Amino acid sequence: MVMNSTVNEFILFGLTQDPRKQKAIFGVFLMLYLATLLGNFFIVVTIKRSSTLGSPMYFFLFYLSFTDACLSTTIAPRLIVDAISQRKTISYKECMTQVFSAHFFGCMEIFVLILMAFDRYVAICKPLRYTTIMNRHVCSVLVILGWVGSCIHSSAQILLALRLPFCGSNVIDHYFCDLQPLLKLACMDTYVINLLVVSNSGAICTVSFIILLISYVIILYSLRKYSAEGRRKALSTCTSHFIVVVLFFGPCIFIYTRPATTFPVDKMVAVFYTIITPMLNPLIYTLRNAEVKNAMKRLWGRKVFSEANDK
């Protein structure tokens, strides 16, 4: 049930109100967003077109890159446009849509990271049964479950947001619509709703992070049986995954696992998991993965060469 009665639009305060800093924000975040789209596009197309990247790890990496592009697109364009706009408004419906989309793709990223860690666990701890356990059908079902789980999570978030009545200030002290800054504007006692947010988003982030930490400890313990070369290759892959996990979960846990209080640093912390991490993921996975780099060289090098010959 929608409780909103008097507010039809919100004003996003953004990262700053300083005109000079806003111009810098426009330039910097436009480049970050374009780099995010370009990097994730290359990974998605390379995995889809390359015959050498057919393992479950790259199957999940495909969905991680797709989710990164969608999560960034949910947040970054509004921030970029608002940086040079005089009127930084967002309609009530657009705001609710952004809440749903941000939590949907954010939750999907969590599930994909867990699936990638599970894939590495099976590959390292149960190598003889790897192809049986992680067959294409199982991987597809796991991804579908991730989409369903994300939809359930984001639906719960949007139902909480839709129940908030707004009758006073409509200025959101943030650069995108999220439940925490919206709770500050609600004309009601939001203690119970905040507990629900913490028990939902906060619990998902914290429990998932603990699960991932445990899985990586088990993986590292299991590597003692491997040869030096085997340990080096496995550690390289797991290190890439762990860097992504820390960059994404650290800010999420900071934002979603505390009482209904906001700090000035919240917006900069949110930048990490909404914009920085989706941009860094392609770099982390390509620079530290020889198979992806070689597949990109073969695919895109061949395309460039053929286009040059056509001219």
UniProtKB/TrEMBL annotation:
<keyword id="KW-1003">Cell membrane</keyword>
<feature type="domain" description="G-protein coupled receptors family 1 profile">
    <location>
        <begin position="39"/>
        <end position="285"/>
    </location>
</feature>
<dbReference type="InterPro" id="IPR050427">
    <property type="entry name" value="Olfactory_Receptors"/>
</dbReference>
<feature type="transmembrane region" description="Helical">
    <location>
        <begin position="201"/>
        <end position="223"/>
    </location>
</feature>
<feature type="transmembrane region" description="Helical">
    <location>
        <begin position="235"/>
        <end position="256"/>
    </location>
</feature>
<feature type="transmembrane region" description="Helical">
    <location>
        <begin position="24"/>
        <end position="45"/>
    </location>
</feature>
<feature type="transmembrane region" description="Helical">
    <location>
        <begin position="138"/>
        <end position="160"/>
    </location>
</feature>
<dbReference type="InterPro" id="IPR000725">
    <property type="entry name" value="Olfact_rcpt"/>
</dbReference>
<protein>
    <recommendedName>
        <fullName>Olfactory receptor</fullName>
    </recommendedName>
</protein>
<keyword id="KW-0807">Transducer</keyword>
<keyword id="KW-0297">G-protein coupled receptor</keyword>
<dbReference type="InterPro" id="IPR017452">
    <property type="entry name" value="GPCR_Rhodpsn_7TM"/>
</dbReference>
<keyword id="KW-0716">Sensory transduction</keyword>
<dbReference type="InterPro" id="IPR000276">
    <property type="entry name" value="GPCR_Rhodpsn"/>
</dbReference>
<keyword id="KW-1133">Transmembrane helix</keyword>
<dbReference type="Pfam" id="PF13853">
    <property type="entry name" value="7tm_4"/>
</dbReference>
<keyword id="KW-0812">Transmembrane</keyword>
<keyword id="KW-0472">Membrane</keyword>
<comment type="similarity">
    <text>Belongs to the G-protein coupled receptor 1 family.</text>
</comment>
<keyword id="KW-0552">Olfaction</keyword>
<feature type="transmembrane region" description="Helical">
    <location>
        <begin position="57"/>
        <end position="80"/>
    </location>
</feature>
<feature type="transmembrane region" description="Helical">
    <location>
        <begin position="268"/>
        <end position="287"/>
    </location>
</feature>
<feature type="transmembrane region" description="Helical">
    <location>
        <begin position="100"/>
        <end position="118"/>
    </location>
</feature>
<keyword id="KW-0675">Receptor</keyword>
<comment type="function">
    <text>Putative odorant or sperm cell receptor.</text>
</comment>
